[in-house]
Amino acid sequence: MISIDFILLVSTLMMFAGVYGFLTRKSTLAILLSIELMLNAANINFAVFNNLLFPQGHEGVFFAIFAIAIAAAESAIAIAIMINIYRQLHNISVDKLTKMKW
Amino acid sequence: MDYSQFLNMQAELSLLAVIVILFVADLFMCADGKNGRGVYNTCLPVVLLTAHTLLNLCPSCQGAGEAFGGMYQHTPMMSIVKSILAVGTIITFLMAHKWLSRPENLVKQGEFYLITLFTLLGMYFMISSGHFLMFFIGLETASIPMAATVAFDKHRYESAEASAKFILLALFSAALLLYGISLIYGSTGTLYFNDIAAAVSFFNSSTNPVMLLGLLLFITGMGFKISLVPFHLWTADTYEGAPTVVTGFLSVISKGSAAFVLFTVLIKVFGAQDLVYAWDQAFLWIIIASITIANLFAIRQKNLKRFMAFSAISQAGYLVLGIMDGTAQGMTSLVFYLLVYMVANLGAFAVLTVVEENTGGITMDSYNGLYKSNPKLAFLMTLCLFSLAGIPPFAGFFSKFFIFMAAFKAGWHWLVLIALINTVISLYYYLLIVKAMYIIPNDEPLPGFKVDCYSRTALFVCIAGVVFLGLCGVAYNYIDAFAYGLDNMVNGLAEPIKCCCPSSCH
Fold first, then answer.
1. Are B452 and B396 in contact (CB under 8 A)?
2. Test mutation, A35, A81, A97, chain B, max B CBs within 10 A
3. Cβ–Cβ of A39/B140 closer than 8 Å?
4. Domains in chain A, start-ordered, CATH in brackets?
């Protein structure tokens, strides 16, 4: 049986890898991937807490399932917006999204 | 299964009925290519939504209740807030008439109503949530379609850029919020609001670092939605790029619902003594930063939508001032502030919208000498700005006064002092617009035009609110009768101790 510490370590690393990616990547698609990493880190947390700490219910697992569905909806609309930007700029780098500043 | 529990969800079900009717109407009555005129443009949605609001206006006939084993909770206060949000949406629809009548928007008008109403439905569920799952689904239902409306002007680049900034930061904040919720689940083992509060006191885990980190991430996620200062960077860009009508909706409805939910969740879930101390400290600095920094940035703005964005950030700071200590009086003043802020801000946005749609002017310079060509509009704009700044005869003064009183009574004296000083600064930049309209000479002001009847109605409702809400104390007393806070809450389930039905007291 793997101790809960190791799994939480993995999820925390995933979370902060996502935050790092969000802050440093230039392509909006890479930023979107980083956000998916963060969401999945939270989902791992839910599954682990449910299985190892509170095995009498299924609340955490169900929350994770709903969170995955919501993340899918979010990515769909985010990608639609990226496509709209690509049609106008022929580029999806965040460096180009600078018309409105300050 | 007991189907009578659906009766507690009256507001949501009637809004769903409105959405279904509009959806079918959009299929059969949409603007076709032949004559290019919308058959039900504005009229049908406004009438249906008004009927929906009137149906749910009376909170005392419903009382408190819950559905789905406590996942959905309902208190009379919540139906007041829902009615306020619905009225704001009606005003937004009225404002949107001219914009939606543009040739490129005619075929899309049905989508605008549906998307906006779905965000409203999400806010309803978020407000009434009794479980973090319902809360999260409601929050995302409220924010994902919002990105689609921000990108509604598909062929305008600013709109696309604004929606990209909005969706990326909304996703980022949602991810942080989700991580925070998972930590709260890890430290208490449940996600029901009432059970979490019970578990915190049972395990005595209010100083548990995991719980505190969960609280911090929760505040961060909500701070993005309300656009409080360390999390406000998307606001100005999104507000500037979005269509003006959508900006009005974002700055009032979306922000106001999130602020109310922040209040209810904080007192329900994080009501333990140590946790209250923790979030009071956090909000102390967030409020000071929001009000001050937003005020300083607002002074240097030239684009009026951007200006209103910073004004909205600073107003959000005042709104959150009602949260300090989570008292019942704080809730009353928060909801009253939300109501007054809604009419004043939407009134200002209605003027911005009609001026932009008729003449294309949106910068501060183009408003120079507006009084000469459009005296009535300039006067209405002045009233709204005076109310936003908090000048006495208008409602804004009373809402600011009540919110300062609540914070002062809770013991945050010097915080109130800083907020007061900032009110003076805000008066300065609101008067910049008034000065531009009345005093700065301009040989070629914007041409005079006739405002369409829908926008007139919206302006009339807003101005009536600005003038009368402050003078009639009834509104404040009515809200106060249903308020609840940490100082008068009965065993977790929010029930006001004061009389539930104001009509029976008289």
1. no
2. A81
3. no
4. 4-89 (1.10.287.3510)
Q: Phi then psi for B63, rounded to 5 degrees?
A: 75, -175
What is the reported pTM? Answer: 0.92
Q: Averaged over B184-192, what is the pLDDT?
A: 91
Q: Where are the domains of chain B?
A: 3-485
Please, is B110 exposed, middle or buried when counting C-beta atoms within 10 Å of its C-beta (0-12, 13-18, 19+)? buried
Amino acid at B248: G
* ipTM reported for the complex surpasses 0.90: yes
Distance, in angstroms, between A67 CA and closest chain B CA? 8
Among B43, B85, B21, CA closest to B457: B43
Q: Which residues pair with B73 in a beta bridge?
A: B66
User: Is the CB of A67 less than 8 angstroms away from the CB of B178?
Assistant: yes
Q: Considering only CA atoms, which of B289, B265, B281, B269 is closest in space to residue B324?
A: B281
Q: What is the pLDDT of residues B348-405, one digit of tens each?
A: 999 999 999 888 888 888 888 888 888 999 999 999 999 999 888 889 999 999 999 9
Cβ–Cβ gap A74/B140 under 8 Å: yes
Strand partners, B192: B131
Cβ separation B164–A28 shorter than 8 A: yes
Sign of CA dihedral B95, B96, B99, B101: negative
Residue B252: its H or E element: none
Determine whether the interchain pair A41/B179 forms a contact, defined as Cβ–Cβ distance below 8 Å.
Answer: yes
Taking alpha carbons only, the member of B241, B232, B392, B240 closest to residue B320 is B232
Q: Taking CB atoms and an 8 Å limit, are B157 and A63 in contact across chains?
A: no
- For residue B32, pLDDT beyond 90: no
The answer to whether B233 contacts chain A (CB < 8 Å) is no
Distance CA B378, CA B370 (A): 6
Q: How many Å lie between the alpha carbon of A96 and the closest alpha carbon of chain B?
A: 9
Nearest to A74 among B144, B164, B189 (CB): B144
